[in-house]
């Protein structure tokens, strides 16, 4: 099983979904640790309660961004991560950091990329009059929210949706697709090549609900 470290900044519900999935013995990845840039992230406590090793690497402890990123790299490598999952990690990573883990670092974003990169995605989807919205798991590249897509899930935008009601629907979809996408990457069924996601060995997999 591939060793995975999850990077979070907050609640950690996607982290939890990955941990849950990895409790299945047949799941191709094992969550070995959690790193947060926020010392008080609720997700850190949840990870500790599950017996995972956790590290807080707050930006405030370092003189500049390169020093902070060096500490993040150190924590990731000490844990022995083979794959890094960003799960609500709300910090932009430098091109150097991203290059170091290219093809081994994935992120979940709360929109159907390439629509609605950045923040406040649910509010913007409603304002744009979208009737579908969703979530994307993608490889992390130097372009923010711009790396090749691994998996997506769409949800309807209902007439009376608020940012909160739509966000809750998307979050549920996130908890379903992040474990699926990580399984594809950890098993080698998805890989990043030439700036694209290539798939192999999917024969016999059932993508229907
Ligand atoms: C998730 O909706 C994730 O897609 C989003 O933050 C939330 C984290 O929730 N990520 C981003 O917006 C990244 N720019 P969680 O902490 O409960 O997993």
Structural class: alpha/beta
Number of extended strands: 9
Q: What's the total helix number? A: 6
Task: Sketch the topology as an H/E string, one letter per element.
Answer: EHEHEHEHEHEEHEE
Residue stretches low in confidence (pLDDT < 50, at least 5 long) are: none
Strand order of the largest sheet: 3-2-1-4-5-6-7
Largest sheet: 7 strands, mixed
Proportion of beta-strand residues: 15-25%
Fraction of residues in helices?
A: 25-40%
Q: Identify every distinct bound molecule in the structure, by name, code or SMILES.
A: glycinamide ribonucleotide
- Rg over C-alpha atoms, rounded to the nearest angstrom: 17 Å
Q: Report how far apart the termini are.
A: 26 Å
Q: Taking all residues together, what is the mean pLDDT?
A: 97
> What's the overall geometry?
globular
Ordered list of secondary-structure elements with their pairings:
Layout: E1 2-8, H1 13-22, E2 29-36, H2 42-49, E3 53-56, H3 65-79, E4 83-86, H4 95-100, E5 105-109, H5 121-127, E6 132-139, E7 149-156, H6 163-186, E8 190-193, E9 196-199
Parallel strand pairs: 1-2, 1-4, 2-3, 4-5
Antiparallel strand pairs: 5-6, 6-7, 8-9
Helix pairs in contact: 1-6
The chain binds glycinamide ribonucleotide.
Descriptive report:
- With 209 residues, the protein is an alpha/beta fold.
- The chain contains six helices and nine strands, in the order E-H-E-H-E-H-E-H-E-H-E-E-H-E-E.
- It has helices spanning 13-22, 42-49, 65-79, 95-100, 121-127, 163-186; strands at 2-8, 29-36, 53-56, 83-86, 105-109, 132-139, 149-156, 190-193, 196-199.
- The chain has a seven-stranded mixed β-sheet, with helices on both faces. The chain has a two-stranded antiparallel ribbon with strand order 8-9.
- Helix 1 (13-22) packs parallel to helix 6.
- The longest helix is centred in the C-terminal third of the chain and has 24 residues, at 163-186.
- The protein is globular, with a radius of gyration of 17 Å.
- The model has no long low-confidence stretch (mean pLDDT 97).
- The structure holds glycinamide ribonucleotide.
- The site of glycinamide ribonucleotide (GAR) has 15 residues, from helix 1, strand 5 and helix 6.
């Amino acid at each position: 099983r591939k060793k995975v470290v999850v990077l979070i900044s907050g609640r950690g519900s996607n982290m939890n979904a990955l941990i849950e999935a990895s409790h299945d013995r047949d799941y191709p990845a094992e969550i070995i640790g959690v790193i947060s840039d926020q010392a008080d992230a609720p997700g850190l406590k949840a990870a500790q309660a599950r017996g995972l090793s956790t590290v807080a690497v707050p930006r405030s402890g370092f003189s500049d961004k390169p020093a902070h990123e060096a500490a993040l790299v150190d924590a990731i490598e000490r844990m022995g991560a083979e794959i890094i999952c960003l799960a609500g990690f709300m910090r932009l990573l430098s091109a150097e950091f991203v290059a170091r883990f290219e093809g081994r670092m994935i992120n979940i974003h709360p929109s159907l990329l390439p629509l609605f990169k950045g923040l406040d995605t649910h509010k913007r989807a409603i304002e744009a009059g979208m009737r579908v919205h969703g979530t994307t798991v993608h490889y992390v590249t130097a372009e923010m929210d711009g790396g090749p897509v691994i998996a997506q899930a769409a949800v309807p935008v209902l007439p009376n949706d608020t940012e909160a009601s739509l966000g809750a629907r998307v979050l549920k979809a996130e908890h379903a697709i992040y474990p699926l996408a990580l399984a594809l990457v950890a098993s080698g069924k998805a890989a990043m090549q030439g700036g694209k996601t290539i798939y192999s060995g999917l024969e016999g997999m059932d993508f229907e609900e």
